[in-house]
Amino acid sequence: MTDFSILDLVPVREGGTVGEAFAAATDLARTAEAVGCKRFWVAEHHLMEGIAGGATSVVLAHIASATSTIRIGSGGIMLPNHTPFHIAEQFGTLAALFPGRVDLGLGRAPGAGPELRQAFRKDLHAAAESFPHDVVELRALLTGDIELPIRATPGHGSDLEMWMLGSSLFGANLAGQLGLPYAFASHFAPDHLDAALEVYRREFRPSKALTEPHVMVAMNLFAAETAEEAEMLASSQMQSFVALRTGRPGKLPPPVANYRDSLPAPTRAMLDHIGQASAIGTPDQVREQVQGFLARTRANEVIFGGPTYDPAARTRSLELAMAALAGMRSEG
Predict the structure, then answer these.
(1) Cα→Cα distances 100→29, 72, 265, Å
(2) What domains are defined for the chain?
(3) pLDDT digits 0-9 by tens, 254-283
(4) pLDDT tens track for 10-22
(5) Luciferase-like domain location, by residue (predicted)?
(6) What 3-state DSSP class applies to 270?
(7) d(C-alpha 317, C-alpha 222), whole Å
(8) Cα–Cα separations (whole angstroms), residue 181 to 51, 157, 199, 215
(9) DSSP assignment of 10-35, as one string?
(10) What is the signed CA dihedral for 324, 41, 139, 148, rounded to 10 degrees?
């Protein structure tokens, strides 16, 4: 049986506001909880006018306050942007406020140009090099498994799940060595998916937190009553992918009918490559595509991304998909 979850970037749509983006994220989280999703994760991004999840722990606190049972977490926190101590305090606070519901997903990529390095007053590339050390330090701050000269309060002794996120072999290897659950960003970076999962499973060493490998894979999800409607819903994200790859990122644009067919062949090929970890179509088609991806990856969990210009269309997409996937869902 498989667990299903939601990854949200808190998208800001064209003509919309940041406040509206937060309201839409809250509605989506409530729907995810109602239909039986296990987790609701928010990703850290900066200097992107179309993504409002930069203050990730603050957004998670709001989402958790608006729900009651679904796990909330970071998908992920980019640790090079921070100090382990600050993250221990932030997520220790969340764990104290919402016990038994908090996940801390960690990523290595700073995703930063010179402007962000200046804003953070950090050498982010050097910080990325120290990522393995910082992960170990952060875990020690939370668990006390290594004696440190300081103790984070809140933080020390927190009841939370720590995850390693990645899109390459580096994170897979580190997750395996540390005995952490591993989430792969296949929804936008599928190139190393199969190799990374093989490395993670091969290198896995049991830890106090986890006795055997545990894998989550990310997929794009767009479900609708017709395949044509689902493809149109997905066109907003497709436009965002194209804009990002051509150096013109912005807010989430309205959907465009037959958008994929309007593109030159190289751009269509790029979208097809990125979209190999996608479930787009009717509920039956979505179920078939998810089943195929699970057969390929042997994952324990799937986390669904997929912003839509109309927030109501995403909640409806999730309702349709989760009904279709009901027989595959975990009962635990």
Answers:
(1) 17, 10, 48
(2) 3-327 (3.20.20.30)
(3) 999 999 999 999 999 999 998 899 999 999
(4) 999 999 999 999 9
(5) 3-295
(6) helix
(7) 6
(8) 26, 19, 13, 6
(9) -BPBTT--HHHHHHHHHHHHHHHHHT
(10) -160
